[in-house]
Design a protein that fits this description.
The protein is mainly beta. The protein is 3% helix and 43% strand. The chain has 1 helix and 15 strands. The strands form 4 sheets. A 5-stranded mixed beta sheet has the order 1-3-2-4-7, with no helix packed on it. A hairpin with a 3-residue loop joins strand 9 and strand 10. The two termini are 26 Å apart.
């Protein structure tokens, strides 16, 4: 069994009940070789040639289409995923992935500012809760930069939390185009809170 022993305890103390863990299996239905991960992994392919199923033991994770947390992303909460191909029916926009990022547990308040254009220019709105449609709620037709001040968020390219999604943790994101999302328009935002 391959193990990744590193654990990031920046947000909560390390206890048995607070371990974040995801297990990748080469075959469907949790068969074949496996890789247990308790932190970010920038290149799963260096441990397993392919992934056929996943078990998320605790916490939440983002999986990425390419190494280095690049490409399309998909959110996984605690649970069993017997067949990666079935994730396509749940909205995953790709059929293979190469990296994963742990989303640390967070129980504080949420706050994010979204901006119409790059570099925090244009219309600005502050969110403290989910928004299923920025066009209907704010009359905002585009969002090209944001500042996540508190909490962890998912942003979606379509209203009502549909389409491709991107994970944002606290920080300043001055240009979605420069981040490689030039073909996306973010139209809805959701907090990652008790979803895990």
């Amino acid at each position: 069994m391959i193990r990744d022993s590193y654990y990031n305890n920046h947000f909560i103390p390390l206890t048995f009940s607070s371990l974040q863990q995801i297990i990748f299996y080469e075959e469907r239905n949790f068969q074949g070789r496996n890789y247990e991960c308790m932190s970010d992994c920038s290149d799963i392919s260096s441990y397993l040639s392919r992934v056929g199923s996943i078990r998320v033991e605790s916490s939440c994770f983002m999986i990425y289409e390419r190494s280095g947390f690049m490409g399309n992303q998909f959110f996984l909460r605690r649970g069993e995923y017997h067949d990666i191909q079935r994730l396509m029916s749940m909205g995953m926009m790709f059929d293979n992935f190469r990296s994963c990022r742990m989303i640390p547990p967070y129980r504080g308040s949420f706050r994010m500012r979204i901006y119409e254009r790059d570099n925090f220019v244009g219309q600005m709105y502050e969110l403290m809760d989910d928004c299923d449609n920025i066009m209907e709620r704010f009359r905002m037709s585009d969002c090209q930069s944001c500042h996540v001040m508190e909490g962890h968020w998912l942003m979606y390219e379509q209203a009502h939390y549909r389409g491709r999604m991107i994970y944002f943790r606290p920080g300043e994101y001055r240009s979605f185009r420069d981040m490689g999302f030039s073909d996306m328009r973010f139209m809805s935002m959701r907090r990652i809170s008790d979803m895990c």
